[in-house]
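Hi team,

As requested, here is the filled-out complex form for the acetyl coenzyme *A run. I kept the field names the same as last time so the parser does not choke. Let me know if anything looks off before we queue the next batch.

— J.
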Amino acid sequence: MSLKAKIEIEGKVLEYPITEGSEHEKAIDISKLRADTGCITIDHGFLNTGSCASAITFLDGELGILRYRGYPIEQLAEQSSFLEVAFLLNWGKLPSKSELDSFEKKVASFSKLPEYIERMIDIFPKTAHPMAVASAVTVSLSAHYPELNNPNPSTEQKDEIFALMLGLFKLVAARSFTAASSQAPIASNPSLSYCEDFISMMGMKSNKDVAKALDVLLILHADHEQNCSTSTVRVVGSSNASIFASISAGIDALWGPLHGGANQEVLEMLEEIKLAGGDYKKALERAKDKNDTFKLMGFGHRVYKNFDPRAKIIKKACDVILAQLGVKDQLLDIAKGLEQEALADDYFKSRNLYPNVDFYSGIIYRALGIPTNMFTVMFALGRMPGWLAQWKEMRETKETKISRPRQVYIGSVVREYVDIGKR
Ligand code: ACO
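And here is what came back:
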């Protein structure tokens, strides 16, 4: 029997269908509510609003579950690789050996940026934030691939876009780093794995442990259903803007400190605590003070209200990689102390605030030698397959309409224009 919700407004009772997802989450379809009653719904920050039906990622914030296409994140982080996960997100199935080989080769074949893009990266001021460079350069790729600006690309074009963006964004990220640090650019080496090539282009020393640690971080960031940046990609794409414009907008949304920008902020916060003598209790008191805008960065999440499964994996990986590299980092001790103290504190307990994916990732990036202002670009590198798969799904869904919320107007009611001389 199909479920229905009854809504009563001013004595009038209306019924609306309830749709159910494959994991039994229920949603009331209120798309006809305004036509029937004149009422819209309001939901600041979309706390309770589903924007689409999606078959890509499932998460249960109460139980701390995250799955890509049905596969638990814990299994993927341990057994898979970033490009295999990217394939899975985009095509909905795990690749065969030959499919993965040819996909890896295809991604690696994008081993050189268009020359004008290289020049563009090089002329940015050295002080430019790499996320600004990444966003500007991504939208500018539209000039090089005019045929891929089509909002309804063919299947072949969609496949091309997917491999191209994964291949080229790695080059953009690495070159924006070498340019900003006045180093000569290092060419891509298509015979290396995705992460080894990135590490090599960053001018960093690589070994199997470092490449594996980076690969796991990218897997953990690869998708996260309808978060702020992914929703942005879908909203921009719903206007038939190009894939390059949509992804560039996603990069901008990710940059914000409440979203992906938090990883940089966490590290800066830990460094500040260290400089102030390592007393993390003061930071906790500030985070709890409602008259202070300071927040405990890397803590809290809109959907995870128990624990963030990615944070659990990262915390473990952090211990492993620091031990493998022989790095002793006081920031890790501060982070652990801060976490322990916060988890025992009523303020954080009562609000279900737990460490999120950004809390420990920065410590690993730092141990790998990646500079702090590149952390959010690392997030973007990892999130790229998710954005692309979500964009593709949105373009292929017949129900997709231009995203256009309504509002409750609270401004002046109608008034007469007054001539400037009479005001
Ligand atoms: N430090 C202190 N207090 C916090 C924190 C925090 N990090 N996070 C939430 N709170 C408090 C809020 O002040 C609020 O308190 P109140 O009920 O007394 O008003 C309560 O907890 C609920 O928080 P909201 O801001 O309403 O939760 P929301 O779901 O809107 O925000 C967010 C989630 C943005 C992640 C928030 O927890 C935050 O700002 N965290 C710090 C930034 C961060 O780490 N962002 C990365 C998120 S993960 C990602 O995007 C990849």
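Two things worth flagging: The pocket of acetyl coenzyme *A is lined by residues 45, 258-260, 262, 287, 295-302, 351, 353, 356-358 (CB under 6 Å). The first strand starts at residue 4 and ends at 9.

Thanks,
J.
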